[in-house]
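tokens incoming
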């Protein structure tokens, strides 16, 4: 008698069948399927010369071998190596060289110092033989030192110490003393050589025998008879072009007019500028640039000159009234000892007429006149 089939038993049989089918499918997917061997078919075409006769063996079809390729790790390493080789084709990076803080800009080499005992000039080429220390010492002895130059020219005898910034010297300059005492160049011979080279190109420049009359269209930079006029023209030409400074100077002439007589004839009436407001000066020179700064400096210079003119006038009058010659010289302002009687009277009359002037600087030594000019802004 056959066993009775129930729902539970039929479900178990179906599960067993399904599991067996899954195992068969896995087996077929892992192992490659081999096609059945085909029986050889005789060829109807005649055999060609030089060709091996066909054998009875059947040719096996090409089958892709399973797991014959290289593992994935090796493929990754190969691809990485290819990438690295392609990246190496980039431009090679030059080794970084540390900048020398002592080297001069624009490839000028290192500065030469007298106390280092260098055996070769800083800009000399390496092709020539190096100089011996004895030869270098001999060349140094030939170059005049700063002290020797001061002793021969007489410059710097009264300036033993370097000047500092102050009311009388706002720029801290020391005329007659080099800011680089250990550097002996340029020598007088080198300066003459440069002057000769420039003269061959541009012609020989000579100072005029007579200073020309002041120009109303060109500001220039001091080529006028009046010292005060030259000072302010130089201020207008600072940090700008000649065109802009001339335009600013023309604005002053249009605003304040030109002097017709006396010191500064043909130029701006600087006393009229002194009596005006800064805003008016600013509007007159604004076309030249930096009008805010220059207008204030012009006003300050004119006020300083007016005070100095009045102080010199009072000192000259007092010295003229002093019967003792020694006391009169002590009372008189600087430069009065070299002035003539007529020059003193002219200076007094100009101060009484509010005519601003710095022409008395011509009576001072060059060094004192230079120091006096440094007081102005």
């Amino acid at each position: 008698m056959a066993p009775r089939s129930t729902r539970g038993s039929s479900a178990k049989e179906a599960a067993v069948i399904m599991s067996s089918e899954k195992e068969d499918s896995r087996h077929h997917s892992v192992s490659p399927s081999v096609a059945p061997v085909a029986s050889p078919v005789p060829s109807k075409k005649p055999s060609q010369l030089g060709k091996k006769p066909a054998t009875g063996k059947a040719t096996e079809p090409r089958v892709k071998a399973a797991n014959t390729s290289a593992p994935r790790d090796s493929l990754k390493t190969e691809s990485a190596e290819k990438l690295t080789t392609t990246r190496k084709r980039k431009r090679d990076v030059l080794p970084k060289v540390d900048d020398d803080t002592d080297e001069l800009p624009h490839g000028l080499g290192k500065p030469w110092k007298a106390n280092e005992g260098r055996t070769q000039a800083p800009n000399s080429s390496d092709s020539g033989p190096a100089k011996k220390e004895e030869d270098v010492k001999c060349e140094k002895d030939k170059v005049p030192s700063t002290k020797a130059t001061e002793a021969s020219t007489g410059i710097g005898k009264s300036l033993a110490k370097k000047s500092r910034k102050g009311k009388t010297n706002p720029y801290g300059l020391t005329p007659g003393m080099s800011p680089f005492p250990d550097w002996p160049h340029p020598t007088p011979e080198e300066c003459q050589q440069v002057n000769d080279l420039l003269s061959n190109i541009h012609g020989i420049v000579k100072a005029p025998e007579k200073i020309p009359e002041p120009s109303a269209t060109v500001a220039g930079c001091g080529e006028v008879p009046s010292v005060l006029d030259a000072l302010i023209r130089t201020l207008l030409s600072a940090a700008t072009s000649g065109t802009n400074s001339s335009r600013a100077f023309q604005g002053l002439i249009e605003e304040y007019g030109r002097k017709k007589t006396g010191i500064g004839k043909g130029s701006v009436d600087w006393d009229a500028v002194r009596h005006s407001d800064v805003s008016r000066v600013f509007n007159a020179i604004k076309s030249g640039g930096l009008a805010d700064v220059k207008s204030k400096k012009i006003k300050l210079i004119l006020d300083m000159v007016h005070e100095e003119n009045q102080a010199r006038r009072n000192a000259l009058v007092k010295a003229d009234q002093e019967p003792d010659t020694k006391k009169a010289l002590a009372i008189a302002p600087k430069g009065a000892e070299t002035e003539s009687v007529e020059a003193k009277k002219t200076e007094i009359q100009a101060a009484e007429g509010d005519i601003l002037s710095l022409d008395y600087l011509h009576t001072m030594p060059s060094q004192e006149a230079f120091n006096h000019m440094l007081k102005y802004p």
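note: The chain has a mean pLDDT of 75.
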